[in-house]
Amino acid sequence: MIRTCYDPEIPVNIYDLGLIYAIDVSPERAVHVKMSLTSPACPVAGSLPGMVQAKIATLPDVTAAKVELVWDPPWTQERLSEAARLQLGLD
User: Fold this and answer.
1) Cα(79)–Cα(9) distance, integer angstroms
2) Which helix H or strand E contains 55, and what residues bound it?
3) CA atoms within 13 A on the CB side of 90
4) 3-class DSSP assignment, residue 23
5) Which residues, in sequence order, are CB contacts of 82 under 8 Å at separation 6+?
6) Which of 44, 38, 40, 32 is nearest to 68 (CA)?
7) What are phi and psi of 20, to 5 degrees?
8) Which residues on adjacent β-strands are paired with residue 24?
9) pTM of the predicted model, to two decimals?
10) What kind and span of H or E run contains 54?
């Protein structure tokens, strides 16, 4: 589901961008995601985490969804997946 979320300025999903730092699922099927953004000044800082949270909450059997925005460690291009690097022409 996270791969259906895109940064509006970069045509790559947020998972392959390396913005997802952790996904934890409790025994009760509550999902907690730690994610970052490419920059603290990102124009979707106020909306993208909520969009991710809403999409996760729609999954069958998920009892709760929480997305936490984190800035440590800072995001760098080194977090890009191989697919993202190819898509962005960085390899």
Assistant:
1) 17
2) helix 48-57
3) 13
4) strand
5) 91
6) 32
7) -90, 115
8) 32
9) 0.90
10) helix 48-57
Contact between 19 and 34 (Cβ < 8 Å)? no
- Give yes or no for a contact between 84 and 17, defined as CB atoms under 8 angstroms apart: yes
Q: Which two tokens stand for residue 75?
A: 């995001």
Sole residue written with tokens 């990102």: 42
* Per-residue pLDDT tens digits for 34-72: 999 988 888 888 899 999 999 999 999 999 999 999 999
Q: Which two tokens stand for residue 20?
A: 């997802």
* 74 close to 40: Cβ distance less than 8 angstroms: no
User: Rounded to an integer, what distance in angstroms lies between the CA atom of residue 33 and that of residue 52?
Assistant: 9
Each as own residue / partner, the long-range contacts of residues 41-44 (CB below 8 Å, 24 or more positions apart, any chain) are 42/7, 42/9, 43/8, 43/9, 44/7, 44/8
